[in-house]
Amino acid sequence: MKTDNKITLSRIKRALSPKILLALFLAVALVTAVFYFTVENNEKNEMQIWYVTTESEDCFPEDTLKLINDYGAMRGIDKVILTKRHPEDTYFDVTMSTTAYYNCDIFIMNEETAKKYYEMDMFLPLCESDFDDLLYINGNAVGALIDEGYYLLINEKSDVDLQIIYDIFEIFTR
Hey, which of 65, 81, 116, 126 has its CA 20 to 30 A from 164? Predict the structure, then answer.
């Protein structure tokens, strides 16, 4: 005996009655609404700072991160994340061109590393009148000196208010 299992338009119309189509539509709408209200709308406002160094000691005082977290909390930033990265790590170039490029807000790095990534249009030019000692690359001011050889740089893709970042620069350079 042969079974007829051809897919035809009339069979599709019979299988997908208006009640089934309405139920599918409502199920998709419900899942979308739940996702939006629980995941998308619950996104935390975080700031990421990447400290790129080969040294074990920080180039800023210990209480600086606490001051930055306190200031960020006053300005609506839930969490400031300081991540230390070693520029000679095997996957450093990959993480800089992917994760850091899209997620990081502020970089702390030396001049050599900044010059290496300048061509990626990764750094936002700084207002020269707001800072004393600046790092210039190809005539553009891109970094503010924080300590001997280390500069603060702003990621071009950062979505944090520029005034908040400038205020954080001021905390770092105290």
Answer: 116
Q: What three-state secondary structure class fits 76?
A: coil
14-48 residue pLDDT tens:
777 888 888 888 999 988 888 776 665 555 688 99
Task: Answer whether 46's CB lies under 8 Å from 79's CB.
Answer: yes
Q: What gap in Å lies between CA 111 and CA 87, rounded to an integer?
A: 12
| DSSP letter string, 44-63 | --EEEEEEE-S-SS-SS-TT
SS3 143: strand
CATH 3.40.350.10 fits 44-172, yes or no: no
**Residues 90-119, mean pLDDT to the nearest whole number:** 90
Paired strand residues for 140: 137
Domains of the chain: which residue ranges? 9-41, 44-172
